[in-house]
Backbone:
């Protein structure tokens, strides 16, 4: 007699890690590191930045607050005595500011490479190495094969793997399981809105808002003396 | 005791063949001179296909195939090739003895580390094959027995005589393998002795008297009935190997195979001395001629942390070789271990710890700096200075420069300014265009905060006097801009200097 067919709930229970329902979050065994922003953690599958996955952050220009978005997770990583690798950042990181955001500057390793092939290579080596708790790369032009390769490598990575790409890349397909588009919010200076373009689980349409940092400093109208242009909101 | 014997039947050919790239091996024959007649001692496969055979007089071989490459047998070179095989095998056991055309290794102490006899055999096989030598192997509880089994095996095969069947295997071996029987082979065959078992059935005294007193003794050693002391190979104090190329090489890719062989020899040598290398040099010797002045090109490699793993060393060497420009054809390679340090690689760890992460960070730095150059990978050291361009130093992180200074000292260096600092700095401040008195970057900038005055550096030659503002453009970028102040000209009614963009709030 053939064994009785499994019921749906049995199948789900047995292949828990491999099946997820389309309307729910994908549950995965990958450990996560909290992003430090409750609003964001709520929307990320697993409740934080997932390790062992390639994460793509798309932004139209630097200076929107992208490091601030990562800073709490990065600070957590350096506090647990792990290193951070930056591959080909567009500008020089200003370590005093990074320290103010709680990131230990001695744990930051900087790789400067101009050629796209070298950047990709350095990134791959960083992912392969066990030395880093976070690997952040800037790849303005990354082919689909490159992201696929990075995602496969990331499955064995020891830490978080972030890839910064220009906003126009949102229309290209990518192998990264998590893709987030970063946008500034008009009228609210330095508030970031995050569109989760892709995540494991149900798509999320509404943007997540990340409040501005050091709110006290930016909103101290008494001390702000408009020098040339009047402050308008 | 467990012995692995390797027998190299074609040593006199192998040391020549391995100097050629694999695709370009010509028909080669090795000749030997005997009583005024030169005859072929060994011919390689391409030569055999043309009809050249061992034992042929040289003249007839040349008549068969005129383009034959002829080399005279060179016992010195053969010995050197054998020694290199010993170096490669030293990685697996320190107890190795060299013999004629072979080596024997005592491996009972290495079985556990390398995961059992089968795995050890495979690794040893791979290591010696990588040296470009053909061999057959025998495994036995006695050294002489293992040697006999290896000689009887077909090239490329292993006879495993471990355990019960060892004596049965030995019994079936032909008499002509015995060294002390070589002079008396005709007589021994004449009396009907074909195998070792036949010979052992004869009375000992008679054999010793009629043939050679050593003959029964050799049999005893082979069967394990009498002790069999060996003279171990002793690794020299320092490592320096040279390898001649058969042709002139102008392509680094062709250097990699011999380079790998030499690196593996070095690692074997290191293992036998319980050491690891912290600096080594690979020297490309060029053919000496009047037209080109370069005698050699050295490639010096310094490791941030001592290592003895051939794959890792080879990776570094390969990355460096790819960046090295070969100025003239290379005729000889040389590898020297310049600095060695006691202690091999660290123990294997089940889970990554801080210590092993530091090791892998060093490895990562080495790997990147050997391919991209040492200046490509840096850390940033904070310096207590309010001028942004002076407030941090790129620190070359090769040689473990990272994490060198104490945390407390570093914390003291961080400035605590009144207003926030941007996460990104421009390499050099970018001068901004001004439109109707308003600086522009992408769009006219809206000033959000400021000014914050930074006036510093009067004590060195890089004095700055600037008013910093935080500004925003239409794209939502938050910028750190400044206007130059000239205190001297201020009174002349000058409204202010140029605007510059120095950083972005990432």
Residues:
């Amino acid at each position: 007699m053939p064994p009785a067919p499994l019921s749906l709930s049995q199948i789900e229970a047995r292949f828990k890690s491999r099946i997820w329902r389309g309307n729910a979050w994908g549950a995965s065994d990958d450990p996560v590191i909290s992003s430090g922003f409750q609003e964001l953690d709520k929307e990320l599958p697993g409740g934080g930045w997932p390790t062992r996955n390639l994460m793509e952050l798309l932004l139209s220009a630097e200076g929107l607050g992208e490091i601030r978005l990562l800073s709490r997770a990065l600070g957590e990583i350096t506090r647990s005595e792990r290193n951070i690798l930056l591959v080909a950042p567009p500008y020089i990181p200003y370590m005093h500011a990074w320290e103010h955001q709680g990131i230990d500057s001695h744990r930051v390793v900087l790789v400067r490479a101009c050629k796209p092939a070298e950047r990709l290579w350095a990134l791959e080596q960083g992912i392969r190495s066990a030395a880093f708790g976070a690997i952040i790369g800037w790849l303005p032009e990354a082919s689909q094969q490159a992201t696929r390769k990075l995602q496969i490598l990331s499955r064995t990575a020891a830490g978080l793997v972030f890839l910064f790409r220009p906003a126009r890349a949102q229309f290209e397909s990518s192998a990264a399981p998590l893709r987030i588009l970063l946008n500034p919010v008009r009228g609210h200076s330095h508030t970031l809105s995050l569109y989760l373009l892709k995540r494991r689980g149900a798509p999320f349409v509404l943007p997540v808002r990340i409040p501005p940092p050091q709110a006290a400093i930016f909103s101290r109208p008494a001390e702000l003396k408009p020098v040339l242009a009047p402050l308008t909101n | 005791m467990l012995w692995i014997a390797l027998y190299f039947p074609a040593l006199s050919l192998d040391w020549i063949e391995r100097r050629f790239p694999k695709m370009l091996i010509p028909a080669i024959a090795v000749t030997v001179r005997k009583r005024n007649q030169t005859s072929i001692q060994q011919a390689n496969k391409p030569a055999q296909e043309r009809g050249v055979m061992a034992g042929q007089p040289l003249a007839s071989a040349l008549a068969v195939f005129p383009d034959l490459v002829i080399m005279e047998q060179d016992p010195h070179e053969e010995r050197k090739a054998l020694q290199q095989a010993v170096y490669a095998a030293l990685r697996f056991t320190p107890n190795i003895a060299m013999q004629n055309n072979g080596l024997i290794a005592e491996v009972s102490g290495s079985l556990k580390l390398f995961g059992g006899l089968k795995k050890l055999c495979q690794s040893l096989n791979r290591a010696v094959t990588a040296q470009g030598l053909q061999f057959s192997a025998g495994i036995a509880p006695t050294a002489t027995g293992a040697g006999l089994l290896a000689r009887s095996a077909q090239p490329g095969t292993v006879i495993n005589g471990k355990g019960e069947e060892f004596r049965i295997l030995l019994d079936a071996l032909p008499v002509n393998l015995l060294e002390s029987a070589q002079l008396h082979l005709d007589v021994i065959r004449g009396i009907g002795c074909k195998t070792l078992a036949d010979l052992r059935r004869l009375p000992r005294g008679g054999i010793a008297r009629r043939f050679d007193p050593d003959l029964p003794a050799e049999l005893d050693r082979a069967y394990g009935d009498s002790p069999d002391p060996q003279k171990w190979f002793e690794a020299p104090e320092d490592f320096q190997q040279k390898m001649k190329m058969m042709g002139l090489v102008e392509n680094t890719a062709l250097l990699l195979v011999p380079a790998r062989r030499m690196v593996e020899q070095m690692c074997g040598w290191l293992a036998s001395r319980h050491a690891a290398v912290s600096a080594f040099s690979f020297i490309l010797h060029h053919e000496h001629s009047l037209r080109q002045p370069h005698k050699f090109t050295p490639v010096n490699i310094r490791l941030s942390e001592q290592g003895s793993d051939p794959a890792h060393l080879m990776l570094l060497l390969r990355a460096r070789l790819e960046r090295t420009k070969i100025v003239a054809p290379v005729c000889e390679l040389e590898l020297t271990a310049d600095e060695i340090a006691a202690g091999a690689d660290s123990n294997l760890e089940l889970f990554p710890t801080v210590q092993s992460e530091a090791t892998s960070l060093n490895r990562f730095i080495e790997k990147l700096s050997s391919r991209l150059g040492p200046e490509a990978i840096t850390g940033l050291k904070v310096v207590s200075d309010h001028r942004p361009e002076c407030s941090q130093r790129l620190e070359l992180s090769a040689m473990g420069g990272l994490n060198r200074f104490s945390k407390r000292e570093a914390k003291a260096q961080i400035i605590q300014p009144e207003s926030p600092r941007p996460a990104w700095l421009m390499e050099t401040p970018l001068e901004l265009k001004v439109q109707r008195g308003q600086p522009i970057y992408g769009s006219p900038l809206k000033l959000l905060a400021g000014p914050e005055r930074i006036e510093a550096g009067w004590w060195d030659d890089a004095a700055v006097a600037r008013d910093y503002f935080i500004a925003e453009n239409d794209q939502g970028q938050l910028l750190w801009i400044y206007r130059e102040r000239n205190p001297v000209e201020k009174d002349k009614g000058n409204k202010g200097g140029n605007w510059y963009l120095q950083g972005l709030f990432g």
